[in-house]
From TrEMBL:
Keywords: Glycosyltransferase, Transferase. It comes from the Bacteria. Pfam families: Glycos_transf_1 (PF00534). The keyword Glycosyltransferase applies. GO terms for molecular function: glycosyltransferase activity. This is Glycosyltransferase family 4 protein. Residues 195-345 form the Glycosyl transferase family domain. Its EC number is 2.4.-.-. The keyword ATP-binding does not apply. InterPro entries: Glyco_trans_1, Glycosyltransferase_grp1.
Length: 365
């Protein structure tokens, strides 16, 4: 069977969980001999990526970066044309199941239905009620979420998530971890690294404010996404981070990374700090763990469950400097550091692409 993933903002190297999750699911499906196609409205997307076909949705007229309100209005205005274009595409690709990746950005709020095609809503985040309520009213055959955190958040918001299924995000690649001797070298003198997109909820600016410079380099890679909560929001975060870094010696601000660049960059870090104040899954943490790099993060969302003994979890009620202190204490303890490094790698094996693809296939079939 062919599974279609619909996500308006999808293109390679977007620094965001939904986009990365989609291609990892598609690659995993390839590994178990299932077909997939990605449908996007972004004109920058190529016709194929990692041997996965990419289809351009031309009936949705938006420009990127795009904010939520603009996309919602454009989607509603073009709903009939979108449905017709998707129907033609699905017939040509012989699609038997379609995953609308998010109630808004995955077009779940209009969720066209077609005879013989199973519809699945992916709720990576709960988002705006106006979108999720509209999507659920379309009566999808299944609802999936990347973690139990999303199910809990939905229940708190008044949704009945008891029938939803958890299908976690997957690794895009399965890299080789660094050998123990090199990992010890990194513990002693390697850089502390942070990787995030330019969203205020990622907590990077707050992390840089009370910074206690460690006796090693600190590198922060920040990337633009084709979406933002409000127009100009990403640029505001960028300016704030640049100003803070300019006042702090030993800290380097870097541009975002391509997806294939992420694993080796995280592998050469002594510790990866994830300063997010909300995280429904935690892909950066997972990718760091897969290369045996311990992670330091707040106890928010799915991060405690994901990281476990593969790093250090601190209270979200504490100030950001608690993340720096936790990293410093871990780096000063070679025994606990080595144990966290090993645990991080072995925990990440649960998220290998083929394993997760089998979970997804059970839900969409």
């Amino acid at each position: 069977m062919t599974i279609a993933f619909v996500l308006a903002s999808w293109r390679p190297d977007v620094p965001a969980g939904m986009e990365r999750a989609v291609i990892a699911h598609a690659v995993g499906l390839q590994q178990i001999n299932a077909e997939s196609v990605i449908v996007t409205a972004d004109p920058a997307a190529p016709p194929t990526y990692r041997n996965v076909p990419i289809e351009r949705l031309r009936s949705l007229d938006v420009q990127f970066p795009c904010d939520d309100a603009t996309l919602r209005a454009a989607t509603d205005a073009s709903a009939p044309a979108i449905g017709e274009e998707l129907a033609r595409l699905f017939r040509r690709r012989q699609v038997r199941a379609v995953v609308y990746v998010d109630a808004l950005w995955g077009l779940g709020r209009i969720m066209p239905t077609h005879p013989g095609i199973r519809t699945v809503l992916a709720a990576h985040v709960i988002g705006h009620d106006v979108d999720l309520q509209a999507a659920l009213a379309r009566r999808p055959d299944a609802v999936i979420a990347p973690s139990a955190t999303v199910l809990t958040e939905a229940a708190v918001r008044g949704y009945d998530s008891s029938s939803w299924s958890v299908v976690p995000n997957a690794l895009l690649t399965v890299p080789e971890p660094r050998p123990g001797s090199y990992r010890e070298h990194l513990r002693a003198s390697g850089p502390v690294r942070v990787l995030a997109r330019l969203g205020p909820e990622k907590g990077v600016a707050e992390l840089l404010e009370p910074i206690n410079v460690l006796d090693r380099p600190i590198e922060v890679a920040l990337a633009d996404a084709p979406f933002e909560l409000a127009a100009g929001g990403q640029e505001q975060v960028r300016r704030r981070c640049r100003a803070l870094v300019a006042e702090t010696p030993g800290v380097t601000l870097l541009p975002g990374l391509a997806w294939h660049e992420v694993p080796p960059w995280l592998a050469d870090a002594s510790v990866v700090i994830v300063p997010s104040r909300a995280e429904t899954f935690g892909l950066v943490a997972l990718e760091a763990m897969a290369v045996s790099t311990p992670v330091v993060a707040y106890d928010v969302g799915n991060l405690p469950h994901l990281i476990g003994d593969g790093g250090v979890i601190v209270s979200h009620r504490s100030r950001p400097d608690s993340l720096w202190r936790a990293a410093q204490h871990l780096l000063a303890d070679p025994i606990n550091y080595a144990a966290a490094s090993r645990a991080a790698y072995y925990r990440s094996r649960d998220y290998w692409p083929a394993l997760v693809a089998n979970q997804l296939l059970k839900v969409v079939s």
